[in-house]
Amino acid sequence: QPVKANIHREITGAVKSITVSLSKTGKFYASILVDDGVEAPALLHTVSKVTGVDLGLSHFTVESNGRKTANPRFVKRAEKNLRRKQRQLSRKAKGSANRAKARLLVAKCHEKAANARADFQHKRSRTLVDENQAVIVETLKSANMMKNRKLAKHIADAAWHSFVAKLEYKLKEQGKYLVKLDQWYASSKTCHCCGHKMEEMPLSVRKWDCLSCGTTDIDRDLNAAFNIRDKGILELKAAGRSSLLMEAA
Fold this sequence. Notes:
The structure is a single chain. The chain is flat and about 70 Å long. The chain starts with 13 loop residues before the first strand and ends in an 11-residue tail after the last helix. It has one domain (14-238). It contains six helices and nine strands, in the order E-E-E-E-E-H-H-E-H-H-H-E-E-E-H. Strand 1 and strand 2 form a beta hairpin. Helix 1 (74-90) runs antiparallel to helix 2. It is α/β, with parallel strands linked by helices.
């Protein structure tokens, strides 16, 4: 029996599998895996456009070309409406039809924030992929960072891991590179001018002065993006993939 559905794109190729899932808001989704017969492109042998990206909370991304993208904070924007709906849910009798309706409204609020986040991340990752041949990021351990109760909600809302995953498959589709640096790389507290490493660098410090080379007013996040880019270029060169690096952003 035919089922009405919203098809987001034309299906081309041989259908291999269809996975149907039910969301908490009662919507059915069908994920269709197809073989279009097109082989993934070979990785580029020459890389000329490279950018380092520092992921954060005040700015979602800070790029080594100086561009900063604000963190939309989708959960925070929905917080007032969400709290109101959660209070309404708590007042409903357990097992009642009204409680089921209230639970659905809460789920829809969460779904709206999640959809907005996914849309933002797809657009931001698409821009980075289209503009560069290699993107360098740090490997952030969100689970460890979320032990900080003050930041846990904001880190979960940022969903860096999801963003990096989008970057990864988009770059792979075009034969481009994603370089993930070691999580312990001290990108923020190492001076990008001379390489001097500060002993301590609390999160509250947004600008600092290098005691070694005398550089002043170093922007913490932009400095990290410079270091991430430079470290990534070294790793690309070590892998023999970066014979031309004239336009490192």
